[in-house]
Amino acid sequence: MKRAFLLGLLILLLPTLCWGIVYIDIEAPGHKTLPIAVAPFMGNPVLGTKARQILKSDLEYTGFFNVLKEDTFLGEKPSAEVDFKRWQLIGAYLLIKGRVEKSGNRFQLDLRLYDVNKGLELLAKRYTGAENALRYAVHRFMDNLMQVLSGEPSVFQTMIAFVYKTKRGKEIYITDFDGYRPRSLTQFHNICLSPKWSPLGDKLLFTSYKRGNPDVYLLDIKKGIAKRIIHYPGLNIGATWSPDAKRIAVTLSIKGRQGIYLVNNKGRIERCLVRSSGINVSPTWSPDGKKLAFVSDRSGCPQIYILDLTTNKISRLTYEGNYNVSPAWSPKGDYIVYAGIKDGHFQLFMIRSDGSVIKQLTDGDSDCQSPSWSPDARFIVFSRDKRLFVLRLCDGKVFPLLKTLPGEQSQPNWSPWLK
């Protein structure tokens, strides 16, 4: 009786134990892709084709999958049954099956992920909503899929803020992670710069010359309301939230001297963090909120320094190159990405936060600037030739973000995970 009970318990736990397998080891050296098949969807053929194409694009975006071509399983008809041996023969390691039903202007989407070799169902999800939300249902499934396979979600429910130059000035725009549906958040008809997401993703800080002076504004994204919150005489630039969203680090020029200050959410100065002759700009918080990286020319040229907020000790981080700017601390705290001049052009570099290892990420005859990490630390968005690009760290591939949006784009900032 006891043995039977234990056997039954093991059977119940088996899917959970299998889900604990790490299919995608992000930290592993080298780059391997998992062969995955996306079977033809059942149900509504139009929505099924659309959802399937979005799903395949999302899979390819990650760089972790080899999406098998259609001609490898042309004989496969839409079916709820899974012939694991058949899928093994065509080289699939993972399999996704789906069904989309439509009622009026609403849909029901069912998606299932299988381990073909083990003959196991790893994930089953159902999503319902208005037809225009089908894309976002697929994105949600992709985050669920990445959570199962790697232990972490990815970027499929994130957005990117950026500066877009129009005929009447520079405005703050946002777009989905894949460049879909770019839209304007401001209509100041002036100069707006340096958008920074709040840790919860519901607000943005940015600098604007709307009233003639570079002041910091706080934009509530849901309400669409922007208010000026930091407006001291002189510069008010580079504002960025602390990880707990309680304070803001910002560059101010008080009494003619430029420094980095800590202010509260209402813009009131709490204390000066960094102050010296010359420039002190571009603060970026460590994920634990205990340190700030920033740019200063106190050594004679712009370099990146780190301020320990508990001891007030400042240490220099970068020594290679004579012009290093725009630091961005990785979400995991282990690296800082920045832009540095090499051979006459800005390139992106990644340095360990202790300064021990430096890696060049881009090259060529174009200027690569304003890097920003994705919340899963697998991608970096940046500007190059007045356009935005995404760098995929697993294989170093660079691809354009906004393929169809004309005009100058700059200063991107990747959102946290959004609900």
What's the N-to-C terminus distance?
47 Å
Mean pLDDT: 91
Largest sheet: 6 strands, mixed
Find the CATH topology of the largest domain: Neuraminidase
Q: How much helix is in the residues?
A: 10-25%
Which architecture name of the largest domain does CATH use? 6 Propeller
Radius of gyration: 24 Å
For this structure, what is the CATH homologous superfamily of the largest domain?
Answer: TolB, C-terminal domain
Number of domains as seen in the coordinates: 2
How much of the sequence is in beta strands? 35-45%
Number of helices: 4
Give the CATH class of the largest domain: Mainly Beta
According to DSSP, the number of beta strands is 30
Coarse structural class? mainly beta
The outline comes out as globular
Low-confidence stretches: 1-19
